[in-house]
Give the backbone structure.
Amino acid sequence: MRDVAIIGAGPIGNYVGYLLATAGLDVVLLEEHAVVGEPAHCTGIIGMDAFEQFDLPRNAVVGELKKVKIISPHRKIFDYDFDTSQALVVDRSKFDRGIAQMAILNGAQLMMDATATGIEVLKDRVDIKIRKDGRIKRIAAKMAVISTGLHYGLQERLGMGKPRDFLKCAQVETDVMDRNDYVEVYFGKRLAPGSFAWVVPIETGNGPRARIGLSSTQSASAYLDKFLVSLNSRVLNAEHLDVKRSAIPLTPIARTFHNRVLAVGDAAGVVKPSTGGGVFYGLICAGIAAEVVKKAFKIGRFDQRVLSEYERQWKKRLGLELKIGYYFRRVASKFTDAQLNDLFEVITSDEVLPLLRRKAKFDWHKDLMLSIVKQAAVRNLFFGSLMKM
Ligand SMILES: Cc1cc2nc3c(=O)[nH]c(=O)nc-3n(C[C@H](O)[C@H](O)[C@H](O)COP(=O)(O)OP(=O)(O)OC[C@H]3O[C@@H](n4cnc5c(N)ncnc54)[C@H](O)[C@@H]3O)c2cc1C
């Protein structure tokens, strides 16, 4: 029997695997695909805090976020240069593989083409049913970590629930005309209803490229088509684009622990609701999960009373950020273009801009949001939108 089976070799599962293998536990990582990190749907923007706090593969970096242009629905542009990098942009496939490699080098086993199709928690172990090479096999472990990203079947089977709300996303990575060092963020109901669109420049050594995408409360790919048309002269080979459709969970699942089981990353629904970025908060949860699992092995107890410590700790660290971020997003997603324009004007005004400069942090948005809502003009906008909910 293995010590820990980690189901899903994305960045968060791999990071838990790395931490637990480093601690000397016998870890197996199960991945349904043939290659770790493929297919990649993500834009790959990861804040500097994450690179400072965690051991992350820097050889996957293909860009940075230092300059940003925010474009309002009425196409007014606010641009800002932060002086220093706020975030790095990674090649997500390479990034995921780099963390998997760290886990393997420390003794974890990676099993590819292994899809977990069932999970059963027994008195002395967890039994995981996997489909591999067309055959059904079983893996027994003292504990399991569910890190399956957007797949919630195993959690639902254990009564842990699934997120209540999601954003729909679509993105392409493509050659572009211009070499540009601004990350562009576009707002507008006709462009990306309920959310925003982006153009993120990357450098791969083969000429200028960009990740162009959007998230939305409505079908994202139809809006992406229109967005690409609006950028048309900048996008090369527009007729051969490989559109990646995906989603982002906006709320945590009902319970992120069970007897002998924890859920982490998107599988737990722990994602920054303001932007939809999930890697940093997922890594924070990975660190907390690893400490709780190590303690469980130390005392030889894997029941939910011991494992609930995981949820208590991540809620203490991230709970308010998630709640306020989600609330802010819900209210703002109901804004009309005229209200978004008004919000843009207030936020970029001489009175509010210094506040923005002081409070803006790439991964922590609660304090900034609360300060902005205190502005009378923004409060009125929010009140108007609340009436419509
Ligand atoms: C368009 C888009 C852009 C994004 N941009 C950013 C960004 O810029 N920055 C950021 O921080 N976040 C971003 N995110 C979010 C980010 O991609 C996720 O939060 C992150 O990938 C979560 O990592 P994870 O390891 O939890 O899950 P995943 O990366 O989804 O990995 C889960 C893994 O589990 C495997 N798996 C699933 N089910 C099974 C099973 N039953 N058996 C075996 N294996 C299984 C999958 O194949 C996959 O490899 C973006 C998301 C989208 C959709």
The chain has a mean pLDDT of 93. The first strand starts at residue 2 and ends at 7.
